[in-house]
Protein backbone atom coordinates (compact mmCIF):
# COMPACT_ATOMS: atom_id res chain seq x y z
CA UNK A 1 0.00 0.00 0.00
CA UNK A 2 1.54 3.32 -1.04
CA UNK A 3 1.31 6.38 1.19
CA UNK A 4 0.89 9.89 -0.19
CA UNK A 5 1.71 11.47 3.16
CA UNK A 6 4.98 13.38 3.46
CA UNK A 7 6.97 12.96 6.64
CA UNK A 8 7.28 15.70 9.20
CA UNK A 9 10.06 16.26 11.68
CA UNK A 10 9.40 17.91 15.03
CA UNK A 11 12.12 19.09 17.36
CA UNK A 12 11.18 18.64 20.99
CA UNK A 13 11.98 21.82 22.87
CA UNK A 14 10.27 20.62 26.05
CA UNK A 15 12.63 20.04 28.96
CA UNK A 16 11.53 16.52 29.89
CA UNK A 17 12.85 14.08 32.44
CA UNK A 18 15.73 12.20 30.89
CA UNK A 19 15.21 8.48 31.55
CA UNK A 20 18.66 7.54 30.24
CA UNK A 21 20.37 9.75 32.82
CA UNK A 22 18.12 9.18 35.82
CA UNK A 23 17.11 5.53 35.32
CA UNK A 24 13.67 6.08 36.85
CA UNK A 25 10.89 8.55 37.34
CA UNK A 26 10.75 8.03 41.08
CA UNK A 27 11.32 11.75 41.64
CA UNK A 28 7.89 12.31 40.06
CA UNK A 29 6.30 9.96 42.56
CA UNK A 30 5.74 7.17 40.04
CA UNK A 31 8.64 4.84 40.83
CA UNK A 32 8.84 3.12 37.43
CA UNK A 33 12.26 2.49 35.88
CA UNK A 34 13.17 3.18 32.26
CA UNK A 35 13.79 -0.54 31.74
CA UNK A 36 10.28 -1.33 32.99
CA UNK A 37 8.76 1.25 30.65
CA UNK A 38 10.61 -0.18 27.65
CA UNK A 39 9.53 -3.71 28.64
CA UNK A 40 5.89 -2.61 28.92
CA UNK A 41 5.91 -0.79 25.58
CA UNK A 42 7.61 -3.65 23.75
CA UNK A 43 5.03 -6.10 25.10
CA UNK A 44 2.33 -4.28 23.11
CA UNK A 45 4.14 -4.21 19.78
CA UNK A 46 7.71 -4.36 18.45
CA UNK A 47 9.73 -1.45 19.80
CA UNK A 48 12.99 -0.78 18.02
CA UNK A 49 15.78 0.70 20.13
CA UNK A 50 18.70 2.22 18.25
CA UNK A 51 21.93 4.19 18.56
CA UNK A 52 23.79 6.02 15.78
CA UNK A 53 27.49 6.77 16.18
CA UNK A 54 27.78 10.02 14.29
CA UNK A 55 31.53 9.74 13.60
CA UNK A 56 31.28 6.28 11.99
CA UNK A 57 27.75 6.32 10.57
CA UNK A 58 27.10 2.95 12.22
CA UNK A 59 23.72 2.17 13.74
CA UNK A 60 23.25 -0.36 16.53
CA UNK A 61 19.76 -1.88 16.59
CA UNK A 62 17.90 -4.29 18.79
CA UNK A 63 16.08 -7.20 17.13
CA UNK A 64 12.79 -5.25 16.81
CA UNK A 65 14.52 -2.41 14.93
CA UNK A 66 15.66 -4.91 12.28
CA UNK A 67 12.10 -6.26 11.98
CA UNK A 68 10.64 -2.75 11.68
CA UNK A 69 13.14 -1.88 8.94
CA UNK A 70 12.42 -5.14 7.10
CA UNK A 71 15.97 -6.45 7.47
CA UNK A 72 17.29 -9.78 8.69
CA UNK A 73 18.64 -9.62 12.25
CA UNK A 74 22.40 -9.37 12.67
CA UNK A 75 24.72 -8.79 15.61
CA UNK A 76 26.67 -6.42 13.37
CA UNK A 77 25.89 -2.69 13.20
CA UNK A 78 23.99 -1.32 10.21
CA UNK A 79 25.56 1.37 8.04
CA UNK A 80 23.46 4.55 7.95
CA UNK A 81 23.33 4.42 4.13
CA UNK A 82 21.89 0.88 4.34
CA UNK A 83 19.12 2.11 6.64
CA UNK A 84 18.43 5.19 4.51
CA UNK A 85 18.00 2.95 1.44
CA UNK A 86 14.84 1.52 3.09
CA UNK A 87 13.30 5.00 3.52
CA UNK A 88 11.20 6.86 0.97
CA UNK A 89 13.63 9.10 -0.99
CA UNK A 90 11.98 12.30 0.31
CA UNK A 91 12.22 11.02 3.87
CA UNK A 92 15.85 9.94 3.49
CA UNK A 93 16.77 13.54 2.62
CA UNK A 94 14.89 14.77 5.69
CA UNK A 95 16.65 12.25 7.93
CA UNK A 96 20.05 13.38 6.66
CA UNK A 97 19.08 17.00 7.43
CA UNK A 98 17.78 15.92 10.83
CA UNK A 99 21.08 14.27 11.74
CA UNK A 100 22.98 17.45 10.89
CA UNK A 101 20.55 19.70 12.80
CA UNK A 102 20.34 17.49 15.90
CA UNK A 103 24.12 17.07 16.00
CA UNK A 104 24.65 20.83 15.79
CA UNK A 105 21.88 21.78 18.21
CA UNK A 106 21.95 18.77 20.56
CA UNK A 107 18.15 18.56 20.27
CA UNK A 108 15.51 15.94 20.82
CA UNK A 109 13.34 14.98 17.85
CA UNK A 110 10.41 12.89 16.66
CA UNK A 111 9.05 12.14 13.22
CA UNK A 112 6.97 9.79 11.12
CA UNK A 113 8.46 8.48 7.89
CA UNK A 114 7.84 5.92 5.19
CA UNK A 115 9.86 2.69 5.06
CA UNK A 116 9.65 0.40 2.05
CA UNK A 117 9.22 -3.34 2.10
CA UNK A 118 10.73 -5.75 -0.41
CA UNK A 119 7.72 -5.29 -2.72
CA UNK A 120 8.28 -1.51 -2.87
CA UNK A 121 5.24 -0.59 -0.79
CA UNK A 122 5.59 1.88 2.08
CA UNK A 123 4.40 1.78 5.68
CA UNK A 124 4.60 4.49 8.31
CA UNK A 125 7.17 4.26 11.09
CA UNK A 126 7.46 6.69 14.00
CA UNK A 127 10.86 7.52 15.46
CA UNK A 128 11.96 9.66 18.36
CA UNK A 129 15.32 10.34 19.88
CA UNK A 130 17.91 12.78 21.12
CA UNK A 131 21.54 13.73 20.93
CA UNK A 132 23.86 12.14 23.51
CA UNK A 133 27.33 13.53 24.13
CA UNK A 134 29.33 10.30 24.34
CA UNK A 135 31.65 8.43 21.96
CA UNK A 136 32.18 11.65 20.01
CA UNK A 137 28.43 12.25 19.71
CA UNK A 138 25.54 9.86 19.22
CA UNK A 139 21.86 9.88 18.46
CA UNK A 140 19.78 7.45 20.51
CA UNK A 141 16.11 6.62 20.22
CA UNK A 142 13.30 4.24 19.47
CA UNK A 143 11.02 3.38 16.55
CA UNK A 144 7.74 1.57 16.04
CA UNK A 145 5.31 0.90 13.22
CA UNK A 146 2.99 3.86 13.48
CA UNK A 147 -0.25 2.37 12.12
CA UNK A 148 0.09 -0.97 13.85
CA UNK A 149 0.70 0.54 17.29
CA UNK A 150 -2.29 2.85 16.91
CA UNK A 151 -4.45 -0.05 15.71
CA UNK A 152 -3.32 -2.23 18.65
CA UNK A 153 -4.18 0.44 21.19
CA UNK A 154 -7.61 1.12 19.62
CA UNK A 155 -8.49 -2.59 19.47
CA UNK A 156 -7.35 -3.11 23.06
CA UNK A 157 -9.47 -0.22 24.30
CA UNK A 158 -12.51 -1.32 22.26
CA UNK A 159 -12.30 -4.92 23.50
Explain this structure:
By secondary structure, the chain is α+β, with helices and mostly antiparallel strands. It is built from six helices and seven strands; from the N terminus they run βααββαβααβββα. Strands 1-5-6-7-2-3-4 form a seven-stranded antiparallel β-sheet. The longest helix has 17 residues, at 89-105. It is globular and about 45 Å long. Residues 1-27 have low confidence and may be disordered.
Q: How large is the count of helical segments?
A: 6
Q: What characteristic shape results from the CA principal axes?
A: globular
CATH topology: Beta-Lactamase
Element-level helix/strand string: EHHEEHEHHEEEH
Radius of gyration: 16 Å
Q: What is the tally of beta strands?
A: 7
As a percent range, the share of strand residues is 25-35%
What structural class should be given to the helix and strand makeup?
alpha+beta
Strand order of the largest sheet: 1-5-6-7-2-3-4
Q: Main beta sheet, described?
A: 7 strands, antiparallel
The CATH architecture classification is 2-Layer Sandwich
Helix content: 25-40%
Distance between the termini: 27 Å
Mean pLDDT metric: 78
Number of domains: 1
CATH superfamily: PAS domain
CATH class: Alpha Beta
Uncertain runs are 1-27
Amino acid sequence: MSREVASQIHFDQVDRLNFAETGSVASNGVGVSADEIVDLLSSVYPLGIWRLEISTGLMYWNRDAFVIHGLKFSDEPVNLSQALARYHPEDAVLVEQLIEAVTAGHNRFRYVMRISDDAGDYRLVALAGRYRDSNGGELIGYCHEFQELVRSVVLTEAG
